[in-house]
Amino acid sequence: MIPGVSMIHILILSGVLFTLGALGVLIRRNAIVMFMSIELMLNAANLAFVGFARSMGALSGQVFVFFVIAVAAAEVAIGLALIVAVYRNRGSIDVDMVSDLKG
Amino acid sequence: MTVELAIFLGLAVVAVGASIAMLVSRNAVYSALFLVIVLFAIAVLYLLLSAAFIAMVQVAVYAGAIMVLFLFVIMLLGTENVESESRRPWQFAAALVLSYVLIIQFLVVAIVLPGDFGGEFGALVDGFGGPASIGILLFKEYLVPFEVTSLLLLAAMVGAIVLTRRESSR
After folding, report:
1. Angstrom distance (rounded) from CA B89 to CA A31
2. Which pTM was predicted?
């Protein structure tokens, strides 16, 4: 029993964290920090999942979070490899520097 | 105010504060360490929500493996302070406006939606969220997704090696 905490609290916190992550992707130019912001958004979604699992008494939500964490691990491995490759080619991971395709 | 609500509010303040600190700190290493604080706060929130196994996975995989990978790459590339000043001032303002719209949407959904979810949480069966119950569900109902995840991790591993391999002279 968790008296006092309800789904509204969880959803509001999840929404605030997701928005901060989205804001980070929009305002930062460092590719690694943008990537961390994406992780923050994934965590906000996971928090909503766990909250709903708790609210409905269904474990499937928690299993889904488990899969999301596994996919996030794969995504981080590939994403950081891409960043390393970009750095080797460009000497910078500032995303404004990687705009060759811009017309 | 109950103890649980006080814990929740404290964790929420820590998580949001550390997220903001992550966004505004100029040094990428500081950003990574602030993100570790956020991940730990969320892990404790999972414990509060009866998700003990997920909380441990969060600490081990996220705060452990993933953040070490982040710090490793930051220090390998030596790109702690590469941020250029944004050359487009309107971009920052547009980002703030879009975030404002997003947060309003979230608040409306969170406050209007919970017809069935609005009340306080009810009682749970014994062992909810423990390793045993998660494992049984994972290997009975979600066996195929589990195996597909292993393939995905293998593909990610091969992909990371291929992407970071130095081109050999042809």
Report:
1. 19
2. 0.89
List of residues 6+ apart from B15 with CB closer than 8 A: A13, A17, B37, B38, B41, B42, B45
Across the interface, which of B87, B91, B118 has its CB nearest the CB of A8? Answer: B118
Last residue within a domain, chosen from B51, B81, B111:
B81
**Residue written as tokens 């710090």?**
B71
ipTM: 0.90
Residue B70 sits in the same domain as residue B3: yes
Contacts of A17 in chain B (CB under 8 A): 15-16, 19, 38
pLDDT digits (tens, 9 = 90+) for A77-95: 999 999 888 888 877 778 8
Distance CA B9, CA A10 (A): 10
Which residue among A5, A21, A73 places its CB closest to the CB of B66? A73
* CB spacing of B163 vs A63 below 8 angstroms: no
Tokens for B12, please give them: 């929420």
* Number of A–B residue contacts, CB under 8 Å: 260
- Domain span at residue A22 reads 7-91
Number of domains in chain B: 2
- Which CATH number characterizes residue A39's domain? 1.10.287.3510
Residue-number span of the structural domain to which B161 is assigned = 127-170
